[in-house]
Amino acid sequence: MSTVLLNPRQQKTEEVEWARLIPGEAPAFRRSSRKSSQSVKPFVLDKEATPADEGAETSAENALQLLVPGPLQRRTGAKWLRSMAADCALVTMSWLMVGAALVPLRLLFPRVHGFAYAAGAPISLLGIALLQAALITLMGYSEGLHAEDLDLRAQAAILGKSVLWSTAVLCFAYGLQGAPWTTGGLFCITGVVDFGALWARRRWNEERTGDACGHSDLRNVLIVGAGRVGRRIALNVEKHPGRGRNVCGFLDDESPIGDGVVGRVADLARMARKLFVDEVILAAPQNRDVTRWVLEESMRLRLDVEIVPDLFGYQPVEREVERVGGSPFICLHAERLPAAGLILKRLVDLSGAVMALGFLSSLLAAIAILIKLDSRGPVLYAAKRAGRKGRLFRCYKFRTMVSNADELKSRLRLENERSGPFFKMASDPRITRVGHYLRRFSLDELPQLWNVVKGEMSLVGPRPHPLDDFAGYEIEDLGRLDVTPGITGLWQVTARRDPSFRRGIELDREYIRTWSLGLDLRILLKTFRAVVCGSGE
């Protein structure tokens, strides 16, 4: 723990505070050192620092924080820097070893172009090594490679992912420059060597963690709270000596002295000095006043403070604490979403819709002309629909009904042939002559490809319902709005003529529960067959 030098006046104040902290005369919580925390200042020279000097120093510190990487600004910055330097050195050595192995291979196999890489320019190996080391570092840091609670298996998984993606980026970049495919194979071989070297270093570090007890970076820890959470923290620290912590004891007002309990909470300053404590851990604090006093006292003593909340037996999902404004949020459960599959689904939707609009442009123009010649009114029918999470959007269709179809709908409600809020009639009098053919071959849905391009709809998903149908939903029916609506869906290809609204809802739920890209492909193929056969309505 670092020593703070004080001027004579401050030293006298500190002596008075120390006299109050002798055994048997610990201060009460109500005599918390709010004033003393303000009186003890960092080392100063003969004259007091002026506000202008303090402002200039603060500006310099802020400028430095903008330039220095975030990991180096943390308490474990030195450890992180050593790890990064070791990883970069190992990656560089791997490339130099591969470069050295290429020399005899060029002589033995002069016709293999891959062995001619970096021939006559060995310095390029150093450049590519630094580039890959930087990519591995960035990927590993984003995946939490340097978290203290990772075991070897988790580190190996993150290392494998980091090396894989960095190698893929290098292969792609050099491929764009016209490098032969054999160069990509060379990069892959080097990536395997990189992974082996990086993993071997971590395994070696894990095996020598037993020697960490005598390491100069060992931090003495004092745990406030000897309850279930505090004991669990101490046990975890004991099981992982390589993390650089040593538990000096507990401070607790309820448990008797002994069995690790070295004092009361009010003894914090005395025990911190006596045991040379570097860090205080608050284990599931319950009393707000006591917690605040411990925080202020630890700050006055220049100790690091950690707080471990009681999470009722659950573990946080993420390693990072999310912040909303100034409030920290700890996630205890996060539903796993197929993020990669959803991204691929969106790419398929976008590319498929754009290609379909281009390929069917002549057909779309012909349909527009026929609609205009058949009846009065606009070519497109744009009505509000309930989309994902109930967000409203304008859904486009070719107009297949008379222009005042929405006004006539309320009169025809009594003749609805579907159960529930969904409205459907087999012989709807509002449908025009061209509209019958468009509905039969589902051509009226083609303008919704533009909704897909805009991201309001997908090629496959639950059909979006009109607002009056949406208003009739039961609470359990709202689950179908958890996903983006689609032009076609499971209900359209399996039970389109089923009059039961409940059946349609069940199929939508089934689609959401069992969704996969393969299911979307099967639905699209069945939809194409239904359109060709003219089985629509």
Question: What do these coordinates show?
Answer:
It is a single chain. The chain has 537 residues and is an alpha/beta fold. The chain folds into three domains: 73-207, no CATH class; 218-319, Rossmann fold (3-Layer(aba) Sandwich), CATH 3.40.50; 341-533, no CATH class. The chain contains 19 helices and eleven strands. The protein has helices spanning 8-20, 34-39, 51-67, 77-108, 123-142, 152-176, 181-207, 228-239, 268-274, 288-300, 339-359, 361-374, 405-409, 433-440, 448-454, 467-471, 490-494, 501-513, 517-533, and strands at 219-224, 245-251, 261-263, 279-283, 304-308, 322-324, 327-329, 380-386, 392-398, 458-460, 486-488. The strands form four sheets. It has a five-stranded parallel sheet, with helices on both faces. Strands 6-7 form a two-stranded antiparallel sheet. A two-stranded antiparallel ribbon has the order 8-9. β1 (219-224), α8 and β2 (245-251) form a beta-alpha-beta unit. α5 packs across α6 and α11 crosses α15. The longest helix has 32 residues, at 77-108. The protein is flat and about 95 Å long. The relative contact order is 0.06. The model is unreliable at 1-48 (pLDDT under 50).
SSE blueprint:
Blueprint: H1 8-20, H2 34-39, H3 51-67, H4 77-108, H5 123-142, H6 152-176, H7 181-207, E1 219-224, H8 228-239, E2 245-251, E3 261-263, H9 268-274, E4 279-283, H10 288-300, E5 304-308, E6 322-324, E7 327-329, H11 339-359, H12 361-374, E8 380-386, E9 392-398, H13 405-409, H14 433-440, H15 448-454, E10 458-460, H16 467-471, E11 486-488, H17 490-494, H18 501-513, H19 517-533
